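Project outcomes to date are best conveyed with an example. Our students and postdoctoral researchers have been running inverse folding experiments weekly, and each run begins with a structure described purely in tokens. The record below, which covers 306 residues, was selected by the lab manager from last quarter's runs and is presented without edits.
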């Protein structure tokens, strides 16, 4: 087994095509196919299922690929740190649930590191895709939350994908709403008081189970629910329909403007903000810096509802 073979199978899995992978790798398709067949014979495992419709990773192949990706990523990190041409841009990517504070932290990161040296990417997306992007090494870090309700299920999914969850801080739950909302001036808001107003929730696509919800306490019996698929639409609905959502309550005025407030929700529940990463894989220098920036937001959270 060689590193080149591991790079080959990882690239084929990403491209889902021998033709596209061979073009990406600058290797002839016969040579690529032969190298992968030799590897499959060596490890006594069929990694890919081949048909007229294309290439699909087998169940056994998925397990092998989880290890192969780690080896390829470690090799890339070693090359970037010790052997590669320093003029080549280093890459850093983060995926996240729809958190303005995580975007704000990314902006601060971008200001600290020269764009001439780094190629940065950010994906604000669905919960499952946050996990999937880290598993596939599309992102180094995935920012999300755990709660008493989703903790067991998400930790299981995270672990099964060769990842780990690293907590950053705990925070109380807040109601996030427009400054013009009738309840905006309250010191604390109860669930009963929210009943006349629509609860806003981010659409999770075909992974729409309660434990994938970005809004904490997703199993409460809401009388009105409106789904949205991006943060700008969510904010418009808060203003236009007096909608609300339950979240960490961290306010980023520079991004969302001064038109929104967070009010403590009347509950003893809390949420843990953290990030997922590849298990036993050290963070890059820029990844560590991003995590340090995220930790500062603990000072902006409401520790408990009083």
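After processing, the design step wrote out the following sequence:
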């Amino acid at each position: 087994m060689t590193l080149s073979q591991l790079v080959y199978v990882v690239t084929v899995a990403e491209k889902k095509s021998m033709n596209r992978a061979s073009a990406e790798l600058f290797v002839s398709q016969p040579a690529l196919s032969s190298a992968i067949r030799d590897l499959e014979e060596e490890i006594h495992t069929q990694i890919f299922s081949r048909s007229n419709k294309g290439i699909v990773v087998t169940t056994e192949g998925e397990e092998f690929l989880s290890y192969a990706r780690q080896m390829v990523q470690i090799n890339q990190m070693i090359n970037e740190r010790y052997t590669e041409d320093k003029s080549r841009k280093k890459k850093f990517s983060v995926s996240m649930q729809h958190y303005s504070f995580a975007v704000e932290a990314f902006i601060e990161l971008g200001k600290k590191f020269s764009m001439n040296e780094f190629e940065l990417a950010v994906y604000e997306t669905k919960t499952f895709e946050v996990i999937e992007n880290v598993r596939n090494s599309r992102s180094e870090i995935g920012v999300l939350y755990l709660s008493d309700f989703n903790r067991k299920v998400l930790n299981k999914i995270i672990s099964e994908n060769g990842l780990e969850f690293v907590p950053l801080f705990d925070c109380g739950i807040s109601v996030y709403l427009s400054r013009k909302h009738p309840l905006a001036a309250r010191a604390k808001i109860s669930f009963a008081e929210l009943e006349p107003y629509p609860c806003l929730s981010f659409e999770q696509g075909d992974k729409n189970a309660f434990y994938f919800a970005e809004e904490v306490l997703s199993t409460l019996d809401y009388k009105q629910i409106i789904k949205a698929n991006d943060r700008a639409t969510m904010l418009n609905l808060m203003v236009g329909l007096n909608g609300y959502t339950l979240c960490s309550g961290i306010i980023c005025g520079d991004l969302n403007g001064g038109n929104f407030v967070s009010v403590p929700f009347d509950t003893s529940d809390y949420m843990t903000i953290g990030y997922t990463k590849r298990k036993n894989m050290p963070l890059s220098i820029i990844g560590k810096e991003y995590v340090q920036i995220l930790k500062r937001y603990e000072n902006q959270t409401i520790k408990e509802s009083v």
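The chain has a mean pLDDT of 87. Residues 59-83 form the longest helix (25 residues). The training component of this project remains on track.
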